[in-house]
Amino acid sequence: MQKTDIATMTKPEVAIGRETLQQIFKVIEDNSGKAGAIIRVLQQVQGIMGYLPPVVLQVIATRMRIPLSEVYGIVSFYHFFSLVPKGKYVIQVCLGTSCYVKGAERILKTLKKDFGLEPQGLTTDGKFSLSTVRCLGACGLAPVIMVGQDIHRKVRPSQLKEILSSYE
Ligand code: FES
Protein backbone atom coordinates (compact mmCIF):
# COMPACT_ATOMS: atom_id res chain seq x y z
CA MET A 1 0.00 0.00 0.00
CA GLN A 2 1.36 3.42 -0.94
CA LYS A 3 1.83 6.24 1.56
CA THR A 4 -0.94 8.32 -0.03
CA ASP A 5 -3.37 5.37 0.20
CA ILE A 6 -2.73 5.13 3.93
CA ALA A 7 -3.22 8.88 4.32
CA THR A 8 -6.57 8.82 2.55
CA MET A 9 -7.69 5.75 4.52
CA THR A 10 -7.03 7.53 7.81
CA LYS A 11 -8.55 10.80 6.62
CA PRO A 12 -11.49 9.81 4.41
CA GLU A 13 -12.90 13.35 4.49
CA VAL A 14 -9.76 14.43 2.61
CA ALA A 15 -10.22 11.82 -0.10
CA ILE A 16 -14.00 11.97 -0.33
CA GLY A 17 -14.86 15.46 0.86
CA ARG A 18 -16.62 16.32 4.10
CA GLU A 19 -20.04 16.78 2.51
CA THR A 20 -19.95 13.45 0.67
CA LEU A 21 -18.75 11.72 3.80
CA GLN A 22 -21.74 13.10 5.71
CA GLN A 23 -24.04 11.83 2.93
CA ILE A 24 -22.47 8.37 3.23
CA PHE A 25 -22.96 8.37 7.00
CA LYS A 26 -26.62 9.33 6.51
CA VAL A 27 -27.15 6.50 4.00
CA ILE A 28 -25.65 4.04 6.50
CA GLU A 29 -27.79 5.41 9.32
CA ASP A 30 -30.98 5.31 7.22
CA ASN A 31 -30.40 1.66 6.36
CA SER A 32 -29.19 0.52 9.73
CA GLY A 33 -30.96 -2.63 10.93
CA LYS A 34 -32.81 -3.18 7.62
CA ALA A 35 -32.59 -6.48 5.74
CA GLY A 36 -29.89 -6.36 3.06
CA ALA A 37 -28.56 -3.11 4.50
CA ILE A 38 -25.09 -3.48 3.02
CA ILE A 39 -26.40 -3.93 -0.54
CA ARG A 40 -28.71 -0.91 -0.19
CA VAL A 41 -25.89 1.16 1.26
CA LEU A 42 -23.50 0.21 -1.54
CA GLN A 43 -26.15 0.97 -4.19
CA GLN A 44 -27.04 4.34 -2.71
CA VAL A 45 -23.43 5.36 -2.16
CA GLN A 46 -22.61 4.39 -5.74
CA GLY A 47 -25.57 6.53 -6.77
CA ILE A 48 -23.97 9.48 -4.97
CA MET A 49 -20.39 8.96 -6.15
CA GLY A 50 -20.84 7.15 -9.46
CA TYR A 51 -18.57 4.33 -8.29
CA LEU A 52 -17.13 2.81 -5.12
CA PRO A 53 -13.49 3.77 -4.53
CA PRO A 54 -11.48 1.76 -1.94
CA VAL A 55 -11.56 4.53 0.66
CA VAL A 56 -15.36 4.51 0.55
CA LEU A 57 -15.49 0.73 1.00
CA GLN A 58 -13.22 1.19 4.01
CA VAL A 59 -15.55 3.82 5.48
CA ILE A 60 -18.62 1.62 4.92
CA ALA A 61 -16.93 -1.46 6.40
CA THR A 62 -15.76 0.42 9.48
CA ARG A 63 -19.02 2.25 10.08
CA MET A 64 -21.18 -0.86 9.55
CA ARG A 65 -18.74 -3.10 11.45
CA ILE A 66 -18.46 -5.51 8.56
CA PRO A 67 -15.09 -7.01 7.54
CA LEU A 68 -13.64 -5.13 4.57
CA SER A 69 -13.08 -8.46 2.79
CA GLU A 70 -16.82 -9.14 2.99
CA VAL A 71 -17.64 -5.73 1.50
CA TYR A 72 -15.17 -6.35 -1.36
CA GLY A 73 -16.71 -9.80 -1.85
CA ILE A 74 -20.18 -8.28 -2.32
CA VAL A 75 -18.92 -5.54 -4.65
CA SER A 76 -17.09 -8.00 -6.86
CA PHE A 77 -19.99 -10.48 -6.91
CA TYR A 78 -22.61 -8.06 -8.29
CA HIS A 79 -21.70 -6.69 -11.71
CA PHE A 80 -23.63 -3.46 -11.18
CA PHE A 81 -21.11 -2.30 -8.61
CA SER A 82 -18.02 -0.58 -9.93
CA LEU A 83 -14.69 0.05 -8.23
CA VAL A 84 -13.60 2.41 -10.98
CA PRO A 85 -15.13 5.63 -12.30
CA LYS A 86 -17.49 5.23 -15.22
CA GLY A 87 -17.80 7.51 -18.21
CA LYS A 88 -20.94 9.34 -19.24
CA TYR A 89 -21.33 6.50 -21.75
CA VAL A 90 -20.18 3.00 -20.93
CA ILE A 91 -18.94 1.04 -23.93
CA GLN A 92 -19.44 -2.68 -23.46
CA VAL A 93 -17.56 -4.92 -25.87
CA CYS A 94 -18.89 -8.45 -26.06
CA LEU A 95 -16.17 -11.08 -25.79
CA GLY A 96 -18.53 -14.06 -26.02
CA THR A 97 -17.56 -16.83 -28.43
CA SER A 98 -19.48 -15.53 -31.48
CA CYS A 99 -18.24 -11.99 -31.06
CA TYR A 100 -14.70 -13.10 -30.33
CA VAL A 101 -14.60 -15.24 -33.48
CA LYS A 102 -15.99 -12.34 -35.53
CA GLY A 103 -13.35 -9.85 -34.38
CA ALA A 104 -14.18 -8.44 -30.95
CA GLU A 105 -10.50 -8.36 -30.12
CA ARG A 106 -9.83 -6.05 -33.09
CA ILE A 107 -12.49 -3.73 -31.68
CA LEU A 108 -10.69 -3.67 -28.33
CA LYS A 109 -7.36 -2.98 -30.04
CA THR A 110 -8.85 -0.09 -32.00
CA LEU A 111 -10.43 1.40 -28.88
CA LYS A 112 -7.03 1.29 -27.24
CA LYS A 113 -5.12 2.68 -30.22
CA ASP A 114 -7.53 5.42 -31.29
CA PHE A 115 -9.17 6.38 -27.99
CA GLY A 116 -6.65 5.28 -25.35
CA LEU A 117 -9.33 3.08 -23.83
CA GLU A 118 -8.54 -0.15 -22.06
CA PRO A 119 -11.02 -2.40 -20.24
CA GLN A 120 -12.04 -0.70 -16.95
CA GLY A 121 -10.51 2.50 -18.33
CA LEU A 122 -11.93 5.95 -18.88
CA THR A 123 -11.26 8.55 -21.57
CA THR A 124 -9.48 11.68 -20.32
CA ASP A 125 -12.63 13.77 -20.83
CA GLY A 126 -14.66 11.27 -18.79
CA LYS A 127 -17.05 10.72 -21.68
CA PHE A 128 -16.49 7.02 -22.30
CA SER A 129 -15.45 4.09 -20.16
CA LEU A 130 -14.90 0.57 -21.35
CA SER A 131 -15.90 -2.79 -20.00
CA THR A 132 -16.17 -6.25 -21.49
CA VAL A 133 -19.08 -8.66 -21.22
CA ARG A 134 -19.64 -12.32 -21.99
CA CYS A 135 -22.74 -12.10 -24.18
CA LEU A 136 -25.16 -9.36 -25.13
CA GLY A 137 -27.74 -11.78 -26.50
CA ALA A 138 -27.35 -10.85 -30.16
CA CYS A 139 -24.83 -13.51 -31.17
CA GLY A 140 -26.21 -13.84 -34.72
CA LEU A 141 -25.20 -10.22 -35.36
CA ALA A 142 -21.68 -10.46 -33.94
CA PRO A 143 -19.52 -8.63 -33.19
CA VAL A 144 -21.72 -6.58 -30.91
CA ILE A 145 -20.99 -3.61 -28.68
CA MET A 146 -23.21 -1.48 -26.48
CA VAL A 147 -22.72 2.23 -25.97
CA GLY A 148 -24.89 3.45 -23.13
CA GLN A 149 -28.26 1.81 -23.79
CA ASP A 150 -27.68 1.44 -27.56
CA ILE A 151 -26.69 -1.83 -29.12
CA HIS A 152 -24.49 -1.76 -32.24
CA ARG A 153 -24.34 -4.90 -34.37
CA LYS A 154 -21.84 -6.27 -36.88
CA VAL A 155 -19.38 -3.59 -35.81
CA ARG A 156 -16.20 -3.15 -37.82
CA PRO A 157 -13.25 -1.42 -36.14
CA SER A 158 -13.32 1.19 -38.92
CA GLN A 159 -16.85 2.22 -37.81
CA LEU A 160 -15.88 2.99 -34.20
CA LYS A 161 -14.96 6.64 -34.80
CA GLU A 162 -18.29 7.31 -36.46
CA ILE A 163 -20.23 5.40 -33.80
CA LEU A 164 -18.57 7.19 -30.89
CA SER A 165 -18.71 10.60 -32.53
CA SER A 166 -22.51 10.29 -32.58
CA TYR A 167 -22.28 10.55 -28.77
CA GLU A 168 -20.27 13.79 -28.80
S1 FES B 1 -21.43 -13.69 -28.01
FE1 FES B 1 -21.58 -11.57 -28.38
S2 FES B 1 -23.70 -11.21 -28.36
FE2 FES B 1 -23.53 -13.28 -27.78
Q: Indicate the CATH topology of the largest domain.
A: Glutaredoxin
The radius of gyration over CA amounts to 19 Å
Helices and strands, in order, run as HHHHHHEHHEEEH
First-residue to last-residue Cα separation: 38 Å
Low-confidence stretches: 1-8
Number of helices: 9
- Under the CATH scheme, the architecture of the largest domain is 3-Layer(aba) Sandwich
Q: In CATH, what is the class of the largest domain?
A: Alpha Beta
Please identify which CATH superfamily of the largest domain we are dealing with.
Glutaredoxin
The portion of residues assigned to helices is 40-55%
Class from secondary-structure proportions: alpha+beta
Strand numbers in spatial order across the main sheet: 2-1-3-4
* Biggest sheet descriptor: 4 strands, mixed
Mean pLDDT: 91
Layout: helices, strands, pairs:
Elements: H1 3-10, H2 12-16, H3 18-31, H4 37-49, H5 54-64, H6 68-77, E1 89-94, H7 97-101, H8 104-115, E2 128-133, E3 145-147, E4 150-152, H9 160-165
Parallel strand pairs: 1-2
Antiparallel strand pairs: 1-3, 3-4
The protein binds FE2/S2 (inorganic) cluster.
